[in-house]
Amino acid sequence: MAEIEAFDLVVFGGTGDLARRKILPALFKRFCAGQMPSPSRLIGAARSKMSAAEYCDFVRAALREFCDAADGREVDQFLEHIDYVTLDAMGDQGWQKLADKIGTQTVRAFYFSVGPSLFKELAERLHKWELVGPDSRIVVEKPFGRDLETARALNRVLCSHFDESQIYRIDHYLGKETVQNLMAVRFGNMLFEPLWNAQYIDHIQITVAETVGVHGREAYYERAGAMRDMVQNHLMQLLCLIAMEPPAKFEPDAVRDEKLKVIRALDTVEPHHIVRGQYTQADNVPGYREDVGNPRSTTESFVALRCQLSNWRWAGTPFYLRTGKRLKSRDSQITVVFKDAPHSIFGPEAGRHNNELTIQLQPNEGITLDVTIKEPGQGGMRLMDVPLDMSFAEALGPDADAPDAYERLIMDVIRGNQTLFMRDDEVEAAWAWTDPIIKGWQARGDVPKPYDAFDFGPDMAAQLMRRDGREWRGIKA
Fold first, then answer.
1. Which one of the record's GO molecular function terms can you name (predicted)?
2. Are 114 and 12 in contact (CB under 8 A)?
3. How far apart are CA 339 and CA 392, in angstroms?
């Protein structure tokens, strides 16, 4: 396990939902793994008026709820590294106290677990109170703007106070163990890389399906929709990793340069290659419009689209992206569908068969390769497809260390490794591709197609594939 230098991590919004659910449990697990050496500290900062002891009680409750950490010696030891300051992001209250609490550690990380409207204020006050040094880093969560114009404005604000090498735009999907393995499978196995192109691959599907609705995020989601919330960032990042050229080295800018080339190679998506949907009431569960309290809402909770890349590796190979709320099951996967053999020696009665590589992101992370074999029994050569299945939990055993995405990403911030974080030009290129799609919907007055909650999405999404003689994989019933 890589050694970690002692650090101070200040979490602005330290009493918020993200801190409670993800940041605090992630840091506790890394503490238990020996990656929070003394005198490292986590300092929560928020408007809530509470003492350090009261914040420790808050942290203890979060650990009990979200990582099953029963009260004990490890929790008590972790809490010794916790401090808190009541702070006003828009004014000067509490900033001197924060300056007094921060130690002499070279590595200082500031996690902006707040809305983007506060980024400028926080950045200015960090510099005003001389809290930023050469090895200081800031972590910012999405949304990175809501269009190209606001993304550029946000980047200008951040880059006016910090060097790009100090800015960590976090996308938790890139921290998932299976997403890491996607790069290992592609670039670490000679078996796949010669076949990873339009000559051998028929198409690629990326699905991120959720059973949850928008409860708790109504105001944000009504402004964003599935396109801004999921496609522009999470699915775009998965597309980049599956389609990118091999970087010269596994280094931050080398990897991000290749991802940027993928985004810039994306063709414009035609309107008939996009399906928007909105879940409706079913099984005593309210529909999207009931959830957000807007009976005329035209915000999409589901998007399916077909896109293509104009480059030598992928010319003519379609990529199908799909994501939605209130679908049949929670199922996120990437499926690489290889082409049929150019000629079947077994005749038409053997049926059509092809190889598929499936990278399961959640749940039950793992990789499956479908291969064609003879169906057991007599009576001729009948073919069937069987999976070569590698579940990470089974293959690596119960003692395998598979950290949560936030564990990995927070430690990468401390190490100063930006490989899994988005660069400013990457964010802006993604918006430059996304904006015309959204503006096209608005200009045409498109209304999302309804679909029943806990179903597979609008019928038109299936038709999108059938027009090409294909069908969706995943979203297991």
1. glucose-6-phosphate dehydrogenase activity
2. yes
3. 27
Give the structural domain span for 313: 174-402+424-466
Instruction: Identify the CATH number of the domain in which residue 136 sits.
Output: 3.40.50.720
176 is in an annotated binding site: yes
Cα–Cα distance, 113 to 45 (Å, whole number): 10
234 carries an active-site annotation: yes
CB 126 within 8 A of CB 132: yes
Domain membership flag for residue 195:
yes
Residue 34 annotated in ligand binding: no
pLDDT digits (tens, 9 = 90+) for 445-477: 999 999 999 999 999 999 999 999 999 987 765
Beta strand pairing status for 136-141 and 167-170? Answer: parallel
What whole-number distance in Å separates Cα of residue 300 and Cα of residue 278? Answer: 5
Residue among 127, 234, 273, 353 flagged as catalytic: 234
Which is nearest to 327 in space by CA: 282, 378, 263? 282
Q: Would you say 427 and 26 are in contact if contact means Cβ atoms under 8 Å apart?
A: no
The answer to the question of whether 210 is labelled as a binding residue is yes
Q: What is the pLDDT of residues 88-105, one digit of tens each?
A: 999 989 999 999 998 777
Q: Is 19 annotated as a binding residue?
A: yes
d(CA 41, CA 80): 8
